[in-house]
Specification:
It is a single chain. By secondary structure, this protein is of the alpha+beta class. Helices cover about 30% and strands about 15% of the residues. A 3-stranded antiparallel beta sheet has the order 5-6-7. A two-stranded antiparallel sheet has the order 1-2. Helix 4 runs antiparallel to helix 6. The N and C termini lie far apart (about 45 Å).
């Protein structure tokens, strides 16, 4: 049964329904119950652009490349921040763990967060750092920039914070994700952290 009062069903030409569906049972560690209880998913396989070229479905590599080369995301990591050299100089004698702790705490304490959940940055990193304000994605990208400048291998990681949303690895789609966190690698081990929450600690 498909509830026709849902937003995704209203005003559509086709109504999809299923019959004799087995009941959905709760399983250990299951966190996507409501997302899978009643859903019809559609994935764009191909489309024809105005110039006549066929657009094929993106791969995960395509999505990663789009993030890296996007001027409102990956390219922001090339922007030097105010007082960056001073901060790097303050941590140059510390261990990688010490550098992470210092920069994590400095950014967490200095930045005020906002509620904008846009995956792409709402303003340039240098401007956000100067104003000491930005969403969680901006804050964690600043951490990535400063740690990288300090010699710690760090990259942004996109994650989904929706407990009812299960990521399907067969369907590359940025809409799955809503937050950026920082990932630092030390001695071959990855450490993922979020400096946007004042209660978080390294």
């Amino acid at each position: 049964y498909l509830d026709t009062n849902q937003n995704m069903v209203i005003n559509t030409d086709t109504l999809l329904a299923m019959a004799n569906v087995h009941s959905l049972s709760e399983e250990p560690l299951m966190n996507s119950y409501y997302d899978n209880l009643q859903r019809a998913s559609f994935v764009l396989v191909s489309d024809k652009a105005p110039d006549g070229k066929t657009i094929l479905n993106l791969t995960w590599q395509d999505l990663g490349a789009d993030l890296i080369y996007n001027k409102t995301f990956g390219q922001q990591l090339k922007i030097k921040l105010k007082d960056e050299d001073k901060i790097v100089d303050q941590v140059k004698t510390l261990t990688p763990e010490g550098k992470i702790a210092f920069i994590f705490n400095k950014v967490r304490d200095a930045m005020d967060g906002d509620e904008n959940a846009d995956m792409y940055l709402d303003w340039p990193l240098d401007e956000a750092w100067t104003k000491k304000r930005g969403n969680a994605n901006v804050i964690n990208m600043i951490v990535c920039r400063l740690l990288t400048s300090a010699g710690v291998v760090t990259c942004p990681v996109v994650v989904s914070t929706d407990a009812d949303k299960r990521i399907d690895p067969r369907k590359p789609w940025m809409k799955h994700y809503d937050k950026v966190m920082a990932c630092a690698t030390i001695d071959g081990k990855d450490h993922v952290f979020d400096a946007s929450d004042k209660d978080n600690h390294w």
